[in-house]
Fold these 3 entries.
Entry 1:
Amino acid sequence: MRQCRLSPLFYPMSHQHNGFREFVIVTRHGQTELNRHNKSVEDKRHEVLTGRTHTPLTEKGRTQALEAGERLQTLLDAFGWRLKGIVSSPSPRAVDTAMLIGSRLRNSMPDVHTDRRFHERSLGVLENMTIGEAIQRTGLPQEEILRLRQDFDRAPEGGENYTQVTNRVSSGVFDLRREFFQGGSDLQAVLVTGHKGVVRCAKHAFGGLSREEVVKFDVPNADFVVFGFHLREEVLPEDVPTHDRTIHFDR
C-alpha cells in the first residue's frame, strides 16, 4: 500500500499501475468561519481551539468544496475509478463539503453516509476556548497549551490524543473497504470527508508518516490525500457497522 498527495494540477498517472484495486480518498472540509478567524488574528491568545466545535463553511469554503468536486471528477476520469460511496464525519462542515463535492460529479452521486469515527479530534474541556481562555482555565502557560494541542500522546482533559484518533480512523477505513469494495476487476474508490486530524491520522496509519511528522503535517482545506490498497487479505471483523445516518442526494 502506498499513498500520494494530490494538488489541483497534478495527478500521478503511475499511481494506477502499481497493482492497487481499491482507493480511499480522504479530504478535509472547506474553510470555516473559525479557520478564517484563526488565520486573521495577530495575537495568538485570541485563536480559538476548535476541535469538534460547530463552525459553518465560509463562502470561500463552499467554493473550495465545489472545486474539489471538479478535481475529484477529473481524478475518476483519469484513472478509470468507480466511486462506490461517500462517507463523512457527522460534523455539518464535513457533511456540507461532501454534498458540495458530490454536486460537481457527473454521474449519479452515492448517498452520503456519516460515521463518527471520522470526526475531528476532541479537545475536551478546551473545546471552543481561545488560547487565552485556556491559559486561565488550566493555569498552563501559552507554550504548554500549544504543545498540548499538537502532542501525539497527551490529551486535554476529557479529550483525545492522536493515538486514539488513529485507532478509530483506521477502524473506519478498514470497515468501509469491506462494505463498499466488492472485488472484481474494477478500480474502485470511496471518498471520506473529514478534518485535519483525520487526514493526519490516516497518513500515520496508511501513509508512513511518523508520530513526529503527524502533528506538523499541513492539511489545506478541501485538499485530497489518496491511499491505494491491494485486494483485501487482512482478517476484518464480521459485523458491518451501522452508519450514523444516510443523506440521500438529489440534484
Note: Residues 2-31+59-120+160-247 form a domain with the Rossmann fold fold (CATH 3.40.50.1240).
Entry 2:
Amino acid sequence: MSLSLASHSIRAALLGAALLGVGTRLPAQAASTSAPSCSVGKAPAGSRVLVFSLTKGFHHASIPSGIAAITELGASHGFAVDTTVNPAAFTDDNLRRYGAVVFMSTTGDVLDSAQQASFERYIERGGGYVGVHSATDTEYDWPWYGRLVGAYFKRHPAPQQAKVNVENKTFIATRCLPAVWTRFDEWYDFREPPKDVSILLTLDEGSYTGGGMGAFHPLSWYHKVGDGRAFYTELGHTNESFADPAYRGHLAGGIIWALTR
C-alpha cells in the first residue's frame, strides 16, 4: 500500500469514527441534565383541611384569592379542603374531621368561649394549625391563642418591596425558597417577638422603610403545642401573593407539615 493510500485510509477511519461519535466528547450542555424542580411533596393520604376566614376587624380583600389558592394546592398536594366563616364549625365532633385548620387572615374575636375550648382540645390532642397574615391580628384576649399563633400584630407601614432572609433551608415550607427572597407585601411589626418557636423567615429592615422591630424581625415560624403542630406566615396580604409559585410552595409546605403526624 502506498503512503498516500494509507493516509487516505486513516483519514477515512477517523472521519467514520467522528460521524459515529466514537471516541468523541459531547458538548457539556448536551451531556448534562437539568436539576429536578423543588417540590414540597404530598400530604398524608386522606388529609382534610378546614379554612376559616371570619373577620371581626379589618377584612383583607385577598381572602378569596387565599381560599382559592389553598383549594388548588389541595388538589395538587393531596388534601381535601372545606371552607367556612361560621364559628359554629368549632365543635369537638366537627374538628376531629380535619388534620389542620387554617386561619386565613382572620381578625378580631372570632370564637366564643365554648368554641375556644373545643379548638384548644383539638390542637392539644394532635390537630394542626396554620395562621396566615392577620391571623396574628386575632383573639388578643385569648392567651392560649397567643401562644399558638406565636405573636400579636402591632403595626405596619405601607406595603412595599423588601428582602426576606430564609433562616432554615431544610424545613418543608422554606426549602424551595431562595436564601434571600425579594418580594412585595405588607410587613407587620409584632408586639413582641415569638418565643419558644423555630424561626423560618426574618425581614431585613434595611431593605424597606417603616420597620420597627430592629435587627431581629421574624416573619414565619413553627412549633409544637401539646401533641399538635402550629405554623405561621406573616406573608399573604396581596392577591398577587397567592398567584406566586414561591409563596404557594411556602404555604403548601406549612400546611403539609401541620397535617403530618
Note: The chain has seven helices and eleven strands.
Entry 3:
Amino acid sequence: MINSGDLNERITVQIPAITRTANGEQVTTWAATKQYWANVRYVRGARAILSGDVMMTNAISIMMNWNDVVTERCRIVWDGKLYHIDSINRNKQHYEINITATRLDVGGTTEGSNG
C-alpha cells in the first residue's frame, strides 16, 4: 500500500494518437491526459559516445496509485523531461502501479514534448 505522503512529485501522462497522412504515412501526436501524484526515484544513468554523439540515458522508477490510463504506449513528463515507459507492473492487491521509464538525451539536447 502506498503512503499518500510518499506521492510527492507531479507527473504528466501523455497518450499517443496515431493518424495517417494522405500518403498513408503514420503520424503520432501526443496528448497530455492528466497529472498524477507519484513517487519518483532515479534508478540508473549511463553515458556513451556513439558515432561522435554523446548519449546519456537516465532510468527512473515511478510508483503511483492504480489507474487504467497508463500503458506501455504512453510517455511520462516529469521535471520538464520526457520519459519513455519501459515496463509497468500493476499490483491490484496494493492498488498501485510501478513503472520503469528511460529518458534519452542525445548530444546534450532533450527530446521535444510533442515528437
Note: The CA atoms of residues 3 and 65 lie 10 Å apart.
